C-alpha cells in the first residue's frame, strides 16, 4: 500500500532533479538563484523601466499640449452604395 506511494514520490523527486540539470542540494538551489537574479536584471527590470519611461513620456506629451484633439468615441461608419457592404443593394442601378 505505501510502497507505490513512496515510489511515486521518489519518481517525482528524480524527475524534478533531472529537469533542473541533475544538480542536487544546495548547489542546485544556488544555481537557480543566480539564474533567476540574472534573468531579473537582464530582462525583467529593463522592460519595466522602458514601460515606465514610455508612460512618463506619454503623460508629459499629453500635459504639454492641452489643446490637442483626442478622439473620445468611435467614428460612425458611412454606408456607401458601391462600398464593401454585402446583402441587399436596392437603389443601385446599372447603366445601360
Mean of the pLDDT scores?
A: 76
Task: Kindly provide the radius of gyration, computed on alpha-carbon positions and rounded to a whole number of angstroms.
Answer: 31 Å
Total number of strands? 0
H and E string: HH
Strand content: under 5%
Counting helices, strands and paired strands, the structural category is mainly alpha
Largest sheet, strands/sense/barrel = none
Oligomer: single chain
Runs with pLDDT <50, length 5+?
Answer: none
- Give the CA-based shape: elongated
Give me the number of helical elements.
Answer: 2
Cα end-to-end separation: 91 Å
As a percent range, the share of helical residues equals: 55-70%
Question: Could you characterize what this model shows?
Answer:
This protein has 96 residues and is an all-alpha fold. The chain has a domain at 25-63. The protein has helices at 2-19, 26-64. The radius of gyration is 31 Å and the shape is elongated. The mean pLDDT is 76. The chain crosses the membrane at residues 25-44. Residues 74-96 are annotated as: Disordered. Keywords: Membrane, Transmembrane, Transmembrane helix.
